[in-house]
Each structure stands twice: as structure tokens, then as C-alpha cells.
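A reminder before we start the practical. When you read a complex entry, don't treat the lines as separate problems. The point of joint prediction is that each chain is placed relative to the others, so the output describes one connected object in space. Small molecules and nucleic acid strands, if listed, are placed in the same frame. In the example below there are two entries. Take a minute to note the order of the lines before looking further.
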Amino acid sequence: MEKKDLKPLLAPKSIAVVGVSQGRSLGGRVIDNLTKLNFAGKIYPVNPKYEEIKRMRCYPSVTAIGETVDMVMIALARPHVLKVLKEAADTGARAAVIPSSGFGETGEPGKALENDIRSIAGEANMAVCGPNCYGFVNFHGRVAAFSGPLYEPLIPGRIGLVMQSGAITHSITDPFSHRSVGLSFLISSGNETVVSGSDYIEYMIDDEHTRVIATFVEGLRDVESFIRAAEHAREKEKPIVVVKVGRSQKAQKAALAHTGSLAGPDEIFEALFRQKGVIRVRDLDELIETTIALEKIKRNVGSRVGVVTISGGASGLISDLAEENRLQLADLSPETVRNLRQILPSFGTPSNPLDCTGSAAGDLGIFKGGIEHLSRDSNVDLVAVGLNSSCGTTEYDNRLYEGMANCAKEVWQKGSDKSFVIMTYTSNTFHPKICQMFRDTDIPVLQGLQKSVLALGHATRYSEFLRNRNTGTAERVSSKAYSGKEWNAKDGVLSEYDSKKILSSCGVDCIEEILAGSRDKSIEASEKLGYPVVLKVVSPDIPHKTEAQAIRINIGSKEEVMRAYDEILENATIFKPNAEIQGILVQKMAPKGIETILGVKNDPQIGPVLMFGLGGIFVELLGDFSLRIPPIVEREALSMVMNIKAAKLFEGIRGAKKADVGAIVRNLLNLSTFAVEHRDILSEVDINPFVVFEEGRGGSALDALITVKS
Amino acid sequence: MEKKDLKPLLAPKSIAVVGVSQGRSLGGRVIDNLTKLNFAGKIYPVNPKYEEIKRMRCYPSVTAIGETVDMVMIALARPHVLKVLKEAADTGARAAVIPSSGFGETGEPGKALENDIRSIAGEANMAVCGPNCYGFVNFHGRVAAFSGPLYEPLIPGRIGLVMQSGAITHSITDPFSHRSVGLSFLISSGNETVVSGSDYIEYMIDDEHTRVIATFVEGLRDVESFIRAAEHAREKEKPIVVVKVGRSQKAQKAALAHTGSLAGPDEIFEALFRQKGVIRVRDLDELIETTIALEKIKRNVGSRVGVVTISGGASGLISDLAEENRLQLADLSPETVRNLRQILPSFGTPSNPLDCTGSAAGDLGIFKGGIEHLSRDSNVDLVAVGLNSSCGTTEYDNRLYEGMANCAKEVWQKGSDKSFVIMTYTSNTFHPKICQMFRDTDIPVLQGLQKSVLALGHATRYSEFLRNRNTGTAERVSSKAYSGKEWNAKDGVLSEYDSKKILSSCGVDCIEEILAGSRDKSIEASEKLGYPVVLKVVSPDIPHKTEAQAIRINIGSKEEVMRAYDEILENATIFKPNAEIQGILVQKMAPKGIETILGVKNDPQIGPVLMFGLGGIFVELLGDFSLRIPPIVEREALSMVMNIKAAKLFEGIRGAKKADVGAIVRNLLNLSTFAVEHRDILSEVDINPFVVFEEGRGGSALDALITVKS
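Here is the predicted structure of the whole assembly.
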């Protein structure tokens, strides 16, 4: 798929603003904003009622401009939009912004209008922003095609924002300005009728100024293009930070089948984001701190954080928050510990977080020494300095915190190869003087401890993600190719026997079994497999064999086989008189092991999703499972297994032997390939249980069910 | 225990400040702060070097003042503190503040000095604040006996703060001032050598101005007095909000026994706080928002929150955050839905959170109408209005948000009986003009969505706690009183048989069993109990019977009993040749049920702690258990059972019948009484498993172990 050309939209050389008036108007505000940001190109106000407006010549129509403009801003009420868009297209304009609301968000007639916009834009190959949006600001290109209020100072920076919601666009910019943090783009994408969020993200990934991208998403219409953008972002080492709403709706989603019921769409998005290195945050505050951290922190930063404060209380609090939010605190080297003993007061303790003690407030040398020693320690990758964030109402504070901030800055400027951050104890913004000091350094100032720790966790894990991205082999069997035509599905479901035959041929380890058509054949099969065995009915009409009492386990002799065979057939017939019975399945009785579930669900939006969890009540009752989007590599399969909460079970608790995790990984990899290669025919795969034996003994699918698309 | 008299300390009529100098000094800053707050009493500067200081007469010593002062502020370095404290005591002063550091926090010699302080204060019945602190501010009493910087504006309010850490005291005050939120007390309690955090809290509970108390705790030295304060606070309906550090150290605590290993001290604190209605927050930001919410919101507020915004994005986000943070969103009444349809644009949806749509930015009537209809709905207890928090750099915003804020205020002023809050999308502070508008209303302004939702959750759950506090009967059997002398403990552990005999006599349902001394007696016992039975060895030397293979289950006949008896004795002897064998225990084989664990651990700090969890790997692997401090009432026992993550299991999943939760509750209540009445002798009780049968059939302890204090 070709990338859309967004240059005429986001970096136009000329802009026509349709709908400017003498009084207050959207169009007027756009022209004010363009002027405020010193737009270097040509601006053409359009309104048939005026000859001149805001000291510029005003044109009666886009056509009347007489030359082709790059972009047309259509600041008109809904009824007039289509006509002007068509006119713009006819004059050769390559882009448009439609701030007007009243489209898809208002129901069916509005959606029809969006279809018209889409077809005009498609024919003319126009990039259209909106409708139902504020437009955008390109800070470096000095284009403020923006109909909302703009907060000063307007600082060009390295953070690019794409927000679907207008109110959120509005809310998010003020805090950045207020803290003197620059942006590269501010895009209010609205209904994304033509240009989608992923398109903007792609543009910003290629943009030299943008280093971090953040986005507020209400709905992802085209998941595939988002995945492509995420992969592109990973190559360019530009993190994407996302707030995606709709988490709480998961409970309402139809839960069709077993695997399906466990993984609502939001859990799938969560898995997708994690797997692709997209950083999901919970609210706007966390988005702000996380982007500010990512904007400055080195991409190759390690995960070991050293913290310096002058307070035992703050150190204790940071230590708690770090553990709870999976932020790794460095173990200081013995040398650092020795050096710190030299500078700390006798009652100080050289540990991490480092409490320089209250003495450091009087003697900033201690504080600076603490920062210096941590920044020299090869066990420390990132130095975080905890400070009170004085709003600056007392002179005492200003002096003290300016001094402290200076210490951190000085150490950093000495050419330390570490990343540095300041994190403040509460969420208020520093005194402007201190903000100013840091503005042009590579030291980000994060506000509030919980948020700072979350942001640092995101930043260090992102670097870890980048380091790991090329590790892990993708060795797995290529599936036997099935078209699905040869599959004997009844109401979309294959029998257990057929399901396992197919999975087995594609590299999933299944229990040894023989389908027997008669009592004698059952005995023969049992003796071939060796006792003890399991007998169960094979019938597409009886998917739940236990319920029908059509299964017998732990059968140890010929006599028992005979009895079991008869009973199963009888029970099956009682349970469903006209059931189609394909035979009796004789399985080797599996040794004891841990029951797990391996599954695939083919999501209509996202495609195949791989699932792993423990059998029994863990998945159902505790939601303890993990998901990944196939294809996956070995490292990802291993993390699927080890990331479930009960993963310790595999290490062999209570005297049990270690479980064969390698076998689970191998089977997940093969199931992953199978799912990808058969995505067009598969609906679901449910391998339940897959029993894992002790280390070295592998594992076996005891039961499995394939469902195909209808 | 008598309450300490803190009036001379916190509301003194006269203060001597020892250690004032002409230059910058702690004492000088104290006098400046006292002056700044217009202290109405007498101030006596003390320094032998000066005759006059800061235009006040300066005294050579406390004695030289010639009359008894209420409180002496000893702003001197450590070596001089004791002498002056003694002098103050001798002159009849009733209180002192010691800001100086270098005491217990620096090691043993400092601790010895604290002992001296304690004995001087004890003899003279003096209330001493510190050492190693900033002192305190009593805002309504206009006493700023405070050696740190004070932020303006200094507004008397209803929030009382007690902070152990000096740096945290410092950090927390700036945000409150900056947001024009008043305080009643700001207390930096330091090492709490004489007056403890709980003492200050008790004082503030009795203080008419204080409505909410917040505290930062590094260590709780006297848990019992904290519990008393919490109970007192509950009576007076004054919530205590606490940040307690040390959560991450839990892993380091010695884990002696099974139950003990699962409940480190922090989990116990967590349980204690929840049970006593103490609101635990994670960091200072959350403390600030939570206290601001609690200061204004009505104590009898219900839990059903109605949210009004003008943004679909923000509404979606709030909905997600509410679900994740257990904030209950109201179901709007049909009438409200009808009324909202009347005022919303055609494309709007009357739901909760209510998105008034962007149209409301142009037509504030829609916004106001939305607030009005929600505030009239009897299904809504609290109305939260979501707003962007403009820092006020554009005139557009000021107008818009001032208008919106006015709408909320107007509706509230019409005499709605609901509680109201404003919550902002990001953490920046409103424009001062808007802050000012709300300052004297009962509408708190909360900052940042995640934090606001957390704060509202705390506030509504606190009201729920108050409503429930007097419900739930405490019916339970009174334990048979044991002194422990009659218990036959070996190395502190009682045998399974003895443990169950004792527990059974105290109302714990135990499985029917007979201790048999011979093979014949085993057979006799089995036949009396009825087959199937279980046989196991009873020996204080073999606590783990499975390991020794000294247990046989599901024994169905006389012959099997005989065989089992012999095997068990043989295996026991092999396992431990000189084991003292008290006999063979014959138990009725219990029907199938859910295995749970009931336990007690007598914590050295907190006393008996009751524990409940599922058997098997749930507790160990997933930390899925609940704790309470006995005595508990029925409601608390039920919440113990239903609060574990896997509680759904008791409802009967996968076709199983409902479990007899009532039996668990009854047994927990009886165990609770037993634990309280035997707290002096018990170390631990471990009932594992306690099997719960289907509803109406009760439950049985199959195994139990009592450990006594050494």
C-alpha cells in the first residue's frame, strides 16, 4: 500500500481560507493563527462579501484566486462544505481541512456526506483533514491551519500529537506550553474520513523534527495500517504513546466461544500494543509525562535507574513506586558505595534511592557529589534526581532548588553518557526560572512521583524493546497447507479427531490416538497404544463429551475397554439420539502434567490472535492468560508463557519437577505459523487441555477443536 | 490510656524562641513566621548575646523571662537542646518544639538523647514536637511555630496534615497554597520522640476546624494507638488519608511459617487501613486530590456518580478510568434520559458520562441543562463536571471555562442536595480567576482525570464505609478459655489431633475423627465413623504427613484399614526412627468440596491477623488471599471471603453447586474470637485445608496446626 502524500496538507506553500468574515469566525481565527506563527507562504482569504479582510485581498471564490493553492481550509457550515471541496479539487488543490462538524458523528445522513468527501478526495488525490476537527499546527513549518485557540509560547519541539477528539486536543496543548515543552505537530484529526491517524503517524515518523509521537484514539478503523505504522516507528526508533478509550466496553462484547470469551477486543489491543512497542498510557497526565521523558532520554538507555534525593521519605516513596510499577532500581557498585560513604554525613546510608539527607540542603556539595557518583557508576544507566517542585513563592526555595537544579545540570554537562531526569514530588510546575534553565538541556523535568515513575518505566522498557527487537529466532515448522475444502466441518466445527490430525500435521504435539470403528478395533488400538488408555466418542454432534458421559479415562484392561466402549455408545445415543457417530477414539492415557490452554481466535478487526493460559479455572476466574498477534518469534512465545501470573508453577513448586516450557514454546510457534497461514479459513482453534510434562518430556494436546469461518 | 494534652503545644498563649540571632537563623525564621501569621500571644526571643532582636526584647535565658511560657521553641544545635529543655521544664513550660536534627535518625548516640528527651518530658508532663522536624502551623490559631519556608497565601482551612518527613512537609504545602486550598494544621512531626503522629491525629479529630486529616508515615511505632485514633476518627466522620512507605520491603521480611509467608507486614497494614476506613493513597498527588475531594464532599454522599462533559473523548476516558478504579457511574433515570433528549443536539446521546457535545461550547445552556438534569436525578448522588483546565493564556478559554464553571456553580447554588466536583482533564491548575470563583463554594476542583477518579472513588467508598460501620452482627461463640498450660506443644507446635480438638471446642467445624492407639482400635473407629475413611499418623515429630507417606485416604474396608495402619506406622518409623507417635488418626473421608485455608498469625506489632484464601496454589502463586484484624463482624467475614479474586468459584462455576459461604463466615467469626481471646498464647493457627461443601452442607477442617508463642 502506498503512503498518502500529506505534504500539501501539512506543509503547504499556499493556503486558501474559505469563510473568513469581519466579525469573529472560524476562518478569521485560522488567519490569526497562521499570522501568529508567521506562516511564510501565501494566504488567500475567500469570502464573496469582502474585497479585503485583515489587510489581505479577499477573493470571492477559490476559483477566483486564479492560481492553484496547495491547501484549502473550508471554515464553513456543513451545507456548504461539499461544494467548496469540489471546487478546490477542480482548481487542482492537493489538500483540504474541514473543521465543520455535523458529519459521521451525527448519524447516517452525516456518514453519507463523508462518503461524498471520500470520493471527491479519492478522485482528486487530495489529502483531507477532518471533518469535525480543529485542523493542525506544524510548528517547525510555521503552519497553523488551526481553528481552535493556541497557547503561547508556541515552541517548535520534538513531540508530535495526533488527537481524534477536539476537546482533548484543546486540553493537551496548554500543559505543554505552560511547561515550555515544544511540539513538532499538533493534529486534531477528527472523523478521519480521508486521512487517518496512522497516516499522520507515518508522516511524523519520516519527519526529521519529530522524536516522539502521541495519540488519543477513540476508535482504530484500520488496524492493519496502524500495525504497519507501529513497525515503521520501531525501525526509526520513534516511540508511539497512545491513550485508547473503550477499555470498559469489553464486558459488553459478545463472547461466542471459549477462547473468544476470554479475550475481548481491548485485551487484544493491549497485547497488540505491547507486542509492537506501542506505549499505552491511562490518561492525559501520563501521556504528557511519558512523552516529555521520551523526548529527551537516550534511545539506548539501559533499564537500571539510580535515584538521588535529599529526603528519606521521598526515597522510600520512590522505592515503593518503582517496585509497583516495574521500574528497575540499580544495584550500586561497591566503588560507588565507598565513594558515597566519603561524602555523606556519618548517619547517611549509601543506597539506591540515595538519600543525601537534609544536610545536603545546607551543603549542596553533598547533593552534587551524590549525583556525580551515581552518574559514574557503570551499574547505573539513568540518573533521576528527585526534587520538590517549588512554585517559587519563597526566596528560600528559589535559591535552594535553583542550586539543586544547577548541580544536576552541571554534572550532566560534564559529558556524562547517562540519561538524566528531574522528577518532582508533586505535580505543580517549577518556577519559570528553573523551567527555563532546563529548557535547552537534555534533562526532562517530570512532575509528580507516581507519574514520573510510570514515565521512566515506559521509557526504559521502550529501550529494552528496541534492544530485543532483533533477537529471538523464528524457527518453526511451516504448516502443511490446507485450503479448508478437505476439512469435514459440521456447522463450522471440525471433530476432535480431525482437528488434532490437522494440528498434528502442522507441528502441534498431540496425544497418540487411533480412531476405532468397532469394539474389536478399540481393543486392538488399546493394545497397540499400550494401557492405560482413554476412550471417547467422536461425533460432530457431541462437542462436550463429559456432559454426555461419553468419555472414560484410565482404562487398564481389555475387559474395561469392552465395557467402556459399550457404555460410551449407549450414553452418546441417550444424550443425542440421532448423533452422527464417527467412531470411538482410543488415546494413550497421558502422564500427569500441568494443564494449559493454547488457542487462536481470528478477530474480524485484527486477524489471528494467539492465546495461552493455564487450564482449569485460572483463565476463566482470574483472567490469567496472555495474547500475541502471530507470527511470533521464540522470545515472544517464551514471554507469553512466562508473563501469566501463575508462571511460577512451571518452575516446579511444592517438590514438583520443572515443566517442559520449551515444549509449550515450540507448540505456540507452530500454532502461530498455522494460524497465519490459514487465517483465511480459520475462525478459532481451541487446544484444551494441552498437558505439559516434566522437563525433557514435552507436552501433548489431549483435546482440540478447530472452528472455521462461515 | 489518657490522651496527651497538646493544647500548650499547638495552641500556646506564649512562646519562647531560643536561638534567635541577628543574621539568618532557624529561630529568626520562626519569629518571622509567627509574625507573618499574626500570632496573638506573646513571643519571647531568647539569646544571651542580644538585648533586642527583631524589635522585641531579647532574654538571656528561658528562666530570665520571669514568667511561665506555654511553649519553648528550641532552635539550637543538638548539643544545647537537652539543657534548654530541662530549663524549660523547670520553669513550668508545658510544651516544646525541637527542630534540630542529629538524634535517633543518626544512630545509637542520638537514640540515647531521645531517651533523655522522653524522660524530661515525661517527668514534666510536656508535649514535645520533634526532634528533626520543622515544627508546625496552626492556621486558625495563627501559630506558625515553624522553621521552614511558608508559602503564601496562608489560608485557614479544613485539612490537617501530619508529616513525618521534613522534605515531604515542604513539598506538600506549596500545591495547596498554589491552589488556594486552606489548611487547619501543618505538622512536621519528625522523630516523634514524645508526641506521636497518632497523638496529633487525635487532637485534630477533636478540632472543630479540621474535616480531613492526611498523614505521611515512614514507620508506625505504636499501632494500637493508631488503631484507636482511626476508630475515633470514624466516630467523628473525619477521614484519615495516609501515604505509608515501605511497601516494597515486604519481600525482605522473614517468612517463618506458611500463613506468615503470605502476609508480610505491608499486607497487614493494607488490611488494617481498609478495615478501619483509613484511606491509603500511593503518592503525594493522590493525597492532595483525595483530601481536596474529602474536604468538600458531603459525608453522606452515595456512591452513584453522574459525569457531565462536552467531549466524547473525555467521556470515554472517564468511563474507562471509573471502571478500572471502582468508581460507580449512575444509571440515569428514564425521566432524566427523556429530559436530556430535549436539550441535546439530535446526534447527542443521553448517557453517563454525559457528552453534551461540542455544541455546548457555543451554547452553554446545553451544558448547564445537562448538569441540572443530572443533579435532579434521584439515581445520581454526586455530580462531577469534567472540564479542560485552562491556564488562561487565551481569552477564548477564559470566557468559555469561566462560563462553564459558572454553570456548575449556579446549579449547585440552587440548593441541590447533591455533592458537586469539578474534575479537569490534565493536572495543570486553573486560571486564578476560576480558582477564586470556586474557593468559597463547596465545589472542589480536582486536577487530572486519573487522580480525580481515584479521589472520588476514595470519597464515595469512605461514605459507604460510614454507612456500613454499624451494620453486621458480631454473633459468634465465645471461645472455651484456654491458658495454654494444658496444651501439649512440642517445640511450640501442637499435634494435628490436639489442634483440632481445641479449635473444635471453640466453634471451628472439624472433620469427625477418632485417635486410635492400635490396629483394632483403628478398625473400630473406622466402623464407627463409617467408610470411606482416612488414616494418618499423629506425631509432633512429623508435621508433614504426606512427605513421610504416613497418610492413606479413601479407605473402604476393614482389610484396607489393617494394611494402611501397618504401612503408615512403618513409613513413619522409616521417615523418623525416633518419632514420638501418639497414635493413628481415623477420619471420616470428607465429601468433595472447595479447599480453602483459614489462618491466624499473631503479628508482634499488630496482634492477631486473620487470613482467608483458597487452598492449592492460589495463595502461594497468585497472592490471592484476604486479611482482617479480629475481632470482625459478619459483614467483614463475608467480605473477606468474597474479596478474594477467585471468589466466583463459590457461586458454582461449570455446573458445580453453590458453596456454603455461610459456613466459612461462621468459622471465620469463631476463629476470630478464638484468636482474640488467646492472643497472649497463640503464635499461629493454620487450618489447611478447610473444605467447603455445597450450600447447606457446611464445611470441615481436615487438617489444622496451632503454634504457640515461645
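Discuss with your neighbour: The domain at 298-468 of chain A is CATH 3.40.50.261 (Rossmann fold). What might explain this?
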